[in-house]
Amino acid sequence: MLIVLALGVPLIVLCRWIWLGGVQNWMSADLWHSLRQTLMLGVGGALLTTACVIPIAWLGIRYPHRIFRMLEGCIYITSSLPGIVTALALVTVTIHYARPIYQTEITLFLAYLLMFMPRALINLRAGIAQAPVELENVARSLGSTPAKALWSVTMRLAAPGAAAGAALVFLGVSNELTATLLLSPLGTRTLSTGFWALTSEIDYVAAAPYAMLMILISLPLTAILYMQSKKIAGL
Description:
It is found in: Cell inner membrane; Cell membrane. Helix content is 82%, strand content 0%. It is mainly alpha-helical and 235 residues long. The longest helix is centred in the first third of the chain and has 34 residues, at 29-62.
């Protein structure tokens, strides 16, 4: 009953606003521009974050030293901070010490990296843990370099975990608001910032398509994550 209320009531209200807006609401150029930018930032943030956590996850599993545990702890602590804190910290640092990258995609992706690394790290760590180190050793004994053995053996086995982590990062980036508002270049408009701007003007009819698109781009990834969790659980 609670699930029905939690999901049904917002969807009913959202569909009502969409019905009131009619087809012309979906003809807005800003809406589709926001969708394109959301997808670009989401995919870019997911790929960057997943790539950055590969060495951290691998070292944490293969060489469980105190230094790597401390590094992981710092990642979790940083991501636990509110997005507004991370964004303001990056604003301060870039204004005083790295002015050329202030309000650029570089700073924005750095914020996404700091905020969403644990989502990719936890899943990738679990995937690498399931890949026996003996397979890497065999690949090296057959002439593969350590990097090639990691990529061709371990990462292939850990690919489902990496994909799950990337999907979670994509979902987080697609719905992120505060850091995107503060750090994005001028003219950037995502679905979340567009929805926020229109609801701030009490224009719920115009904001409804933005909310619906956020739901629609989240559904496929959510379904994939759900099916993968059932597969892992053996259900």
